[in-house]
């Protein structure tokens, strides 16, 4: 991928809470140890992992959850295959080479019913999905009970959806968030950012100097990033991960299943989910760690150009632009 001007990029990873509770039901209950806001919730709450991509080339071109595409991969390659994926609990969406969006899976709130038109990046949230249009506008679909699908006017270079909130990175580097804000997850700090990632009930951003800043719910240390610089940050449900310049990764926050205990070696992309985290190795192979219920951390063979940890349903974008998910029955037809 040609290194040109720096654009916003995002690797969002939102996912279900600790699996000491049934994942879907736990999501319905709201943040661990905190009461869910009074609101009518029908059906099963679905959640996926976000990504980013912009109309300009970025040093970290996103390809789900916002994961970035591996070096050497062009985000505009192919007209029929997928160029980016974003997965969450129960559904997955893919951005095609022609800019159209295809989604599959749970659709209780219309989150998997993509509108017509073209997009340059997509991001799946708890019950909503948002996309960045070629002119920098944001369009969202799905549930909107907290305003999470009602983006403000203006132009953006990246959008990242959390569970009940959504954030956008503007062309001037400032961040605007909308939707549920009980924990401050939709109240970004002042200053400029190069990338953002909306998690379950917290949000993280990457500053121009590479330092990470997080805000929102911090019951497990998920908004306390370590010192040092990063090239990518990915906010999961109750944990957060960052990729450093040399390819090493660090995670912080909730860790009862080892989801924040990064294995040795280097990565080109990282995606924080719920009870699991996934990363893309330099050779294109996927690695996942954390709770291995239903095989969600048992990665398939082959090489990938992007990975999205989702929430209990990781998905990967293969070099041939096809999509495969594991730990779930989700599929995304070519």
Report what the structure shows.
With 334 residues, the protein is an all-beta fold. The protein has one domain: Methylamine Dehydrogenase, Chain H, CATH 2.130.10. The protein has one helix and 22 strands. It has one helix spanning 23-29, and strands spanning 48-49, 82-88, 91-96, 101-105, 121-124, 128-132, 138-142, 156-161, 165-170, 175-179, 195-198, 202-206, 212-216, 232-235, 239-243, 249-253, 269-272, 276-280, 286-290, 304-308, 315-318, 323-325. The strands form seven sheets. Strands 1-2-3-4 form a four-stranded antiparallel sheet, with no helix packed on it. A three-stranded antiparallel sheet has the order 5-6-7, with no helix packed on it. The chain has a three-stranded antiparallel sheet with strand order 8-9-10, with no helix packed on it.
| CATH fourth-tier homologous superfamily | Regulator of chromosome condensation 1/beta-lactamase-inhibitor protein II
How widely separated are the two ends? 23 Å
Shape: globular
Helical amount among residues, as a percent range?
under 10%
Instruction: Let me know the average pLDDT.
Output: 82
Biggest sheet features: 4 strands, antiparallel
The CATH class designation is: Mainly Beta
The CATH topology assignment is: Methylamine Dehydrogenase, Chain H
């Amino acid at each position: 991928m040609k290194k040109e001007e720096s654009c916003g990029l995002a690797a969002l990873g939102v996912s279900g809470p600790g699996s000491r509770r049934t994942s879907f039901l736990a999501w319905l209950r709201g943040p661990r140890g905190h009461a869910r806001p009074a609101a009518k919730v029908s059906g099963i709450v679905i959640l996926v992992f976000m990504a980013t991509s912009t109309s300009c080339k970025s040093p970290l071109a996103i390809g789900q959850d916002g994961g970035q595409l591996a070096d050497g991969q062009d985000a505009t390659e192919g007209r029929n295959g997928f160029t980016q994926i974003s997965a969450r609990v129960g559904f997955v969406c893919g951005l095609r080479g022609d800019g159209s969006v295809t989604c599959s899976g749970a659709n209780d709130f219309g989150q998997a019913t993509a509108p017509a038109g073209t997009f340059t990046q997509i991001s799946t949230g708890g019950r909503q999905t948002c996309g960045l249009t070629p002119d920098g506008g944001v369009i969202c679909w799905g549930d909107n009970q907290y305003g999470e699908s009602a983006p403000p006017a203006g132009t953006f270079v990246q959008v990242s959806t959390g569970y009940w909130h959504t954030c956008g990175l503007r062309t001037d580097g400032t961040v605007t968030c909308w939707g549920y804000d009980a924990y401050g997850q939709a109240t970004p700090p002042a200053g400029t950012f190069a990338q953002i990632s909306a998690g379950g009930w917290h949000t993280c951003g990457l500053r121009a100097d590479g330092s990470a800043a997080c805000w929102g719910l911090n019951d497990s240390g998920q908004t306390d990033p370590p010192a040092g610089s990063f090239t990518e940050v990915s906010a999961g449900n109750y944990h957060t991960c960052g990729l450093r310049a040399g390819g090493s990764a660090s995670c912080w926050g909730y860790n009862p299943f080892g989801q924040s205990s990064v294995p040795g070696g280097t990565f080109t992309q990282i995606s924080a989910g719920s009870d699991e985290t996934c990363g893309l190795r330099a050779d294109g192979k996927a690695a996942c760690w954390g709770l291995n219920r239903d095989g969600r951390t048992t990665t398939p063979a082959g090489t990938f150009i992007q990975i999205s940890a989702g929430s209990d349903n990781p998905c990967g974008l293969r070099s041939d632009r096809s999509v495969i998910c594991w730990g779930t029955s989700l599929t995304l037809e070519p």
